[in-house]
Amino acid sequence: MEIVTPKKHLEKLLSRCQGVADKKSTMPVLANVLLSAEGNTVTVSATDLYLTISGSIEAEVKRSGSVALPARDVHERVKAMPDGPIKLTVTNGSATTLQAVGSARRYTLHGLPGSDFPQLPEPSSDAPTIEISVAMLQKLVKRTIFSISSDETRPHLNSALFECRAAKGSTPGLVRMVTTDGHRLSKMQLPVENLAAETTMLVPHKAMQELRKLFDDVLDHRDTTMVAITQTGPNAFFKLGGIRFSVKLIDAQFPPYDQVIPASSERIVTAGRTAFMDALKAVSLAASDRTYGVKLAIAANALRISSESPESGNAFDEIPVDYDGPEISVGFNAQYLQHVLAAMDVEEEVSLGLSGDLDPAVLRPVGPGSEDFVAVVMPMRI
């Protein structure tokens, strides 16, 4: 195998792929990326057997072939090359040489035969495909990923529920994402015109993290505006620009989230989002490192936030709010509230729905599109 390709294109593709390579696997080949050259194209792929990512770039292919190279090592060495073309040559035994064209800088890497790399999943040719804007999916992920459980022994919570509902008559289609860890829940949904296919899938947390990075990178570089989603058996495939990302979906039952979201709240408090978040952050500095517990005391047009800890002392702050009702005091994990407020990064105001000191709080943005996002946070005794 022998190719010549621009450094910037190869470095960008290796950067996207190396996050999926499994460096801790008992299968050494999974710590590698697969480079395949054919025609005038080089394809770079990585997999951990659950997630797979691959992308292609144009190259001068002098001799076709494939090789598996250590993901981190090849990325670091390509990154260290001077700008310009890079020549990659694979000899017998999969020994690989990286040479900067027009420069003396050169690296040698010990690779594995490309045939040792696992076979990558492929979508069925007759599977229906859904097209959604990258910006829309990025918003769904951003507003829900924080409430996914980190407990991998509970796969139904260590994942995000992703639903697409087809348009019917004058009713537009709908995309929805829901996550919960048992203590909090977030749901984001958006209308989509001309959505013809439907799907329901549970996307694991690691895949959500990689998708978020991929969406951010694609939008930063304006590579594409749409993502095509295809589900084949246990796998889902996301294709955007020159990148294809696949994930083995979770086979479990997601909790009945509609039963968790209160139909109404007895008391509604409207607060400035930034002021609320800043006060929570300041007061939580004195909260317990184990529970991050703070108390919200709400009276006429005032929200008082306090925390007490035998180890770190007390803290107090107060912000003005729009509220005219009976006083109520409720305890919460400050980090849970902060995560919700941080996700609503474009809204100026937020509504906080409360009923009793043991009832869940409901947070929504105030203004246009306020029904698109809702978060539920369970209270705690303080």
Q: What would the principal axes of the Cα set say about the shape? A: elongated
Q: Any idea of the CATH class of the largest domain?
A: Alpha Beta
- The value of Rg in angstroms is 25 Å
Strand content: 35-45%
Strand order of the largest sheet: 15-12-13-14-26-25-24-19-22-21-20-23
CATH superfamily of the largest domain: DNA Polymerase III, subunit A, domain 2
The DSSP helix count reads 6
Q: Helix/strand/pairing class, anyone?
A: alpha+beta
- Number of separate strands: 26
Q: Which bin fits the share of residues in helices? A: 10-25%
Q: Could you tell me the CATH topology label of the largest domain.
A: DNA Polymerase III, Chain A, domain 2
Main sheet overview = 12 strands, antiparallel
**Uncertain stretches:** none
Average pLDDT for all residues: 94
CATH level-two architecture of the largest domain? Roll
The count of domains is: 3
Report how far the terminal alpha carbons are from each other: 65 Å
Walk me through what this model shows:
The chain has 382 residues and is of the alpha+beta class. It has 3 domains: 2-116, Roll (DNA Polymerase III, Chain A, domain 2); 129-257, DNA Polymerase III, subunit A, domain 2 (DNA Polymerase III, Chain A, domain 2); 261-377, DNA Polymerase III, subunit A, domain 2 (DNA Polymerase III, Chain A, domain 2), CATH 3.10.150.10. The chain has 6 helices and 26 strands. The protein has helices at residues 7-18, 71-79, 134-142, 205-221, 273-283, 334-343, and strands at residues 2-6, 32-38, 41-47, 51-58, 60-63, 65-70, 85-90, 95-100, 106-110, 112-113, 129-133, 159-165, 173-180, 184-192, 199-204, 226-232, 235-240, 243-248, 267-272, 293-299, 302-309, 313-322, 328-333, 349-354, 361-365, 373-377. The strands form 3 sheets. Strands 15-12-13-14-26-25-24-19-22-21-20-23 form a 12-stranded antiparallel sheet. Strands 10-6-2-3-4-18-17-16-11 form a 9-stranded antiparallel sheet. It has a 5-stranded antiparallel sheet with strand order 5-1-7-8-9. Strand 3 and strand 4 (51-58) form a beta hairpin. Helix 1 packs antiparallel against helix 2 (71-79) and helix 5 packs antiparallel against helix 6.
